Structures are given as structure tokens and as C-alpha cells.
């Protein structure tokens, strides 16, 4: 009889098992999950030596490369530079700090990519940058002049990656500021480092 007097129980929503409410997964949660997954198994001695050698090819500190590799789960196939990351001086003749130029020339087995300043034609900027550094830049795309809606920011980043069929996870972005951070997040790139972190302190424009 008591059962008949109990308040009725509302049926659960379709597809719901009365667990916690499902919320959209944030980028931060995805990053934490990737870090945890990568940390499950430490690299073997051989793998560790190979990764340290790869760090030298990229001109990166071993600790920085190992952290980046653990985070994105793959090797870095390309490094994309924001315009202000290269310490460029825009004038009649393009110039950059010698420390940055030497670092670029020392990098091996990786695509060098760049975003052109908004007022510069990308192809002409890529040619000028190659002549200045002595490096063959694999691609160049326009840098947004201001933060964009998320889909447009992703399209701006993919314009640099798609001609080389690069996955976002295999690309490191070197740059600071709101636009760089938006491009990094929208395209789900493998990592982002400031110019001072990548080239050394005191090299940013």
C-alpha cells in the first residue's frame, strides 16, 4: 500500500543513465587527458636517446622537446612562426637578429612555416624571408590582423598547414599574444612557445 502512496518517479531522459550531466569537453580538459595518457609509459633508453637527438636537430632544449612530445603524442613535423616571433624589422630592407637567423639555419628535418604580416603579400614575404635567412620556408599564409571568430581562425591556420597535408598535432607555433593563442587553439596545434622560450630570452621584437 505504501508503494501506491509514494510520489511517482519521472522516467530518465532518453539516452541518460542518471550519471553526471554531460558538458562539452574544454580544450584544457583535452590537454590534461593527453598529458596523462602520454605519461603512462616512460620512453625506453633507445627511444629517449632518439628523442634527445631530435631535440638537437630542432635546436630545442631536450626538456622542452620531451615535454612537447609527451603533450602532443607525435614528433614535430613543422614549426610555424608568427611575424613578431622572428624579431623582424620592417623597412626598405628586412632584417632580424643574428641569433634568430643562426638558430633557423641550424634546424634540420622540419618544415619552416611563417605567417606574413597582414599588409604583406605572403609569397613575397616568404621569398624575402628565405633570402634573409638562407632557409627554405615551406609555406606562408596571411596573419590575421585581429582576433577572429573561431571557425575563421581555424581556417586561417589551416591555410598554412593544408598545402603540406600537416596535422595540427605535429605543428609547433612560435608566437605570443591573443592572435597566436587563438590560432593555436582553433587549429589544435601540437604546442605553442613564446619567442623567448624558443629562441632564448631577449630575442623577441
What does this structure look like?
The protein is of the alpha/beta class. It has helices spanning 2-5, 27-38, 45-58, 62-72, 98-106, 122-133, 150-161, 178-186, 195-199, and strands at residues 78-81, 111-116, 139-142, 171-174, 191-193. It is built from 9 helices and 5 strands. It has a 5-stranded parallel β-sheet with strand order 3-2-1-4-5, with helices on both faces. Helix 7 (150-161) packs across helix 8 (178-186). 27% of the residues are buried.
Give the SSE layout.
Elements: H1 2-5, H2 27-38, H3 45-58, H4 62-72, E1 78-81, H5 98-106, E2 111-116, H6 122-133, E3 139-142, H7 150-161, E4 171-174, H8 178-186, E5 191-193, H9 195-199
Parallel strand pairs: 1-2, 1-4, 2-3, 4-5
Helix pairs in contact: 3-4, 7-8
List keywords for this structure.
single chain; 205 residues; alpha/beta; Rossmann fold; 9 helices; 5 strands; 43% helix; globular
Instruction: Note the total helix count.
Output: 9
CATH fold type of the domain at 74-199: Rossmann fold
Oligomer: single chain
The CATH homologous superfamily of the domain at 74-199: HAD superfamily/HAD-like
- Helical content band: 40-55%
Amino acid at each position: 500500500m505504501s508503494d501506491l502512496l509514494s510520489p511517482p518517479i519521472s522516467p530518465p531522459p532518453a539516452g541518460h543513465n542518471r550519471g553526471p550531466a554531460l558538458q562539452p569537453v574544454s580544450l584544457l580538459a583535452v590537454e590534461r587527458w593527453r598529458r596523462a595518457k602520454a605519461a603512462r609509459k616512460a620512453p625506453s633508453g633507445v627511444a629517449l636517446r632518439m628523442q634527445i637527438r631530435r631535440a638537437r636537430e630542432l635546436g630545442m632544449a631536450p626538456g622542452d622537446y620531451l615535454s612537447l612530445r609527451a603533450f602532443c603524442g607525435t614528433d614535430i613535423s613543422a614549426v610555424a612562426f608568427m611575424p613578431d616571433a622572428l624579431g623582424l624589422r620592417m623597412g626598405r630592407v628586412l632584417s632580424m637578429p643574428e641569433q634568430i637567423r643562426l638558430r633557423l639555419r641550424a634546424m634540420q628535418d622540419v618544415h619552416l612555416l611563417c605567417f606574413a604580416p597582414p599588409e604583406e603579400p605572403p609569397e613575397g614575404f616568404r621569398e624575402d624571408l628565405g633570402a634573409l635567412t638562407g632557409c627554405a620556408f615551406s609555406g606562408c599564409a596571411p596573419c590575421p590582423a585581429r582576433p577572429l571568430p573561431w571557425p575563421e581562425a581555424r581556417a586561417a591556420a589551416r591555410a598554412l598547414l593544408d598545402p603540406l597535408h600537416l596535422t595540427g598535432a605535429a605543428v609547433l607555433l612560435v608566437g605570443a599574444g591573443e592572435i597566436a593563442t587563438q590560432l593555436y587553439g582553433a587549429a589544435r596545434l601540437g604546442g605553442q612557445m613564446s619567442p623567448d622560450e624558443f629562441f632564448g630570452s631577449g630575442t623577441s621584437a
